[in-house]
Amino acid sequence: MTNTSIDSIYNQVVHVIGKIVKKSPENIVDDHQLIEDLGLDSLLFLDLLAELEAKFGFELSIDDFDPEYFHSVHSTVAFVKDRVQA
Amino acid sequence: MNMTTLKSWLQSHGWNEDAGIYETGSGDVINYVSYRDMIATAEQWAVGWRNELGAGDSPFIALVWMDQSIRSITSLFAVILSGGIPIPLHEYTVPDEVIRIVDWIEPDLIILPDSKLQHIDGELQLEGKYKGYRVIEISGKDQWCFHGEKTTSFEREYSSSQLDQAAIIFLSSGSTGLPKGIMLSDANIMANLMQIQRDVQLEAKDRVLLFKSLGYSSTFTGELLLAMLAGASIYLCSVRHPLELIRFVDKLQISYVCTVPALITALDKNRSWSFPSMGSLRKLLIIGGKAAHNTVQSLLERIPSTQVMIGYGLTEAAPRVCSFILNDVPDKAGAAGLPLDGIVMQIRDEFGEVQPGTTGEIYVQGPNVMLGYYKDEVRSKAVLTEYGLRTNDIGHMDDDGYLYVTGRADNAMNVGGHTLYPESIELVLSIHPMIAEAAVLSIEDAHWGERIIALIVCHQKDNSEQELYSYCQQKLQPAQRPKEIVVVSTIPKTSSGKINRTALKPLYLEVHHDKYVH
């Protein structure tokens, strides 16, 4: 995978997060915590994951619910990159 | 066993020493207390609190912050054991709403964990250094301390014979910007607890995964008290996604789950899991709205060792009214069930009770029907009729007596099992200086049942969408927040000047269409 497409994944994931939490992507940074900084609640969490699944064409599995995933923008992007590259 | 009051039941029940409550983080157990030890601690707290309050025999009202923790549950029981009336507050209640609730309820006591008090203490102190109430801060596993001046009087302006009989008050969404305070008696709670246990038949070997808010009567009576009565253990956790539910069930060998259709729909949509995942689950109860026909039928096949139950209820009925086991009658998918033992249901229209198959409004009679609404005798009289509790739900019964709920008589919406009123969201939106007028509607949503849309008329053309969304985040609970805020030039009205709600969806679709087609 090229750097360009990896950067594009970053931008797309941030765009999806922004759409869900109703914030402009330029106001979202890599180390933002999804819950504490961006106000992601349990209802939006399900929407976010459904949107990421639809956009990047993967299906989450039980093992994907490691507490390390989906706590920050950085970890969410890393997770999506991993799944897209797999 | 003395079953007269909740308090006497808690005090005299022979608690199974081997059963209790587990706190879990990511599926690992991090804390445990047996029911016996928890009640003993609650008894100690109750004595200390009553002494500190100097309340004598006066009943007091306590708002109790309910996060998914042993100490919140202990606090709730301590209020009951000290003769107070607890009002459980949802963990997700936003600070602004807490203040509105405090102003309206006029509690004598507010009980909060230290973590929450840090966030909300400023707002509470703005109320005039805890105006007329005191705050108990719970820290660590079992430490508490009082804040605020000692109150000498526990007399309140509002009193009623119903309040005198109230054992607990649950807050439920209302249409006025304030929740409804649903007063339930000891008899209501104990009757519904027994009705539910006769229906569900939970056993001491069962493990209950409890993740719904403890601010709901369905969680309090239908899960917490039910598990305690059966001697089954409870695992407290937070579930954000259906796959997390499966993870918890498998890891903790859970045998009983009660959840809402939104989670079931998402669970069924995901094809990455298969039996024997969820194999430990003996019973799955779906409440809080109608699950799609094909979803529940698909679930029956995917979790063949699980009894899938469907239930219907409302807080005003303490809450469970009817249920059924779908495995026994799969052709009844879409129904809400048969009335529980001791409950009589009627479907009525303006001429009286209707025949099976005819649609009307659902009325409920039974020992579980509430005392009334706190500080709202007009509304209490309107729903507590000679035919029983008027539910505002519309439906019909089939020839076998199964209830089918098909709609609402008022404007209530259902988002992921939460009953919400557009009027209360409109009230909050209309206070924002940018907004001249607001109207709220819902449209069908594959995940949540319904999705909230706000149509707004702005004072100026320059408006910041993001400012409005962050305003909603501050002022509204998660389920109440609009997924979309759409600016329109005018809100359609009826000839009497009220919002024309039937015209809102066509207007939204028109604007939405224009936005995306051009």
TrEMBL record, chain A:
Q: Does the keyword Phosphoprotein apply?
A: yes
Coiled coil ranges (UniProt) are: none
Ranges of residues in domain Carrier: 8-84
Repeat among keywords:
no
**What residue stretch is flagged as signal peptide?**
none
Q: Which UniProt keywords apply?
A: Phosphopantetheine, Phosphoprotein
Q: What is this protein called?
A: Carrier domain-containing protein
From TrEMBL, chain B:
The chain positions of domain AMP-binding enzyme C-terminal read 425-498
Q: Which InterPro entries match?
A: AMP-bd_C (IPR025110), AMP-bd_C_sf (IPR045851), AMP-binding_CS (IPR020845), AMP-dep_synth/lig_dom (IPR000873), ANL_N_sf (IPR042099)
Q: Which Pfam families does this UniProt record tie to the protein?
A: AMP-binding, AMP-binding_C
**Gene Ontology terms for molecular function:** medium-chain fatty acid-CoA ligase activity
The residue ranges of the AMP-dependent synthetase/ligase domain are 31-374
Sorted keywords for this record are: Ligase
Can you supply a Gene Ontology BP term from the record? fatty acid metabolic process
Q: Matching SUPFAM superfamilies, A to Z? A: Acetyl-CoA synthetase-like
PANTHER family documented for this protein? ACYL-COA SYNTHETASE, MEDIUM-CHAIN ACYL-COA LIGASE ACSF2, MITOCHONDRIAL
Similarity remark: Belongs to the ATP-dependent AMP-binding enzyme family.
State the protein's name.
Acyl--CoA ligase
Q: Which organism is it from?
A: Paenibacillus agilis
